[in-house]
Design brief:
single chain; about 100 residues; mainly alpha; 434 Repressor (Amino-terminal Domain); two-stranded antiparallel ribbon; 2 strands; about 5% strand; globular
């Protein structure tokens, strides 16, 4: 029998807690990367905008999830005055 998972993170992470952490980080990274792409920013421009170094933006756009914490990603959003407005838990909006 083949085991099915809701997310790749559920399949590859050892614990449900770790999988959820990775899901949140990957979503935040996608939002930041999309903002960079949609605004046609260079890595240098994005670094200034998000208050980080250019190598950190390089890590972001290359998807190096292991070098980012949830706190760092939220801080990057906040430094650019981008706000998280919708959070759902099991399909129920909580924020």
């Amino acid at each position: 029998m083949i085991e099915e998972f809701d997310s790749v993170w559920d399949a590859i992470e050892d614990t449900p807690e770790r999988a959820e952490n990775m899901k949140v980080r990957s979503k935040l990274m996608r939002v930041l990367t999309a903002h960079i792409e949609n605004n046609k920013m260079t890595q240098a421009q994005a670094a200034k905008f998000f208050g980080v170094t250019q190598p950190r933006i390089s890590d972001l756009v290359r998807g190096k999830i292991s070098v980012f914490s949830i706190d760092m990603l939220v801080n990057m959003l906040a430094s650019a005055e981008l706000r998280i407005s919708n959070i759902e838990i099991n399909g129920i909006a909580v924020a």
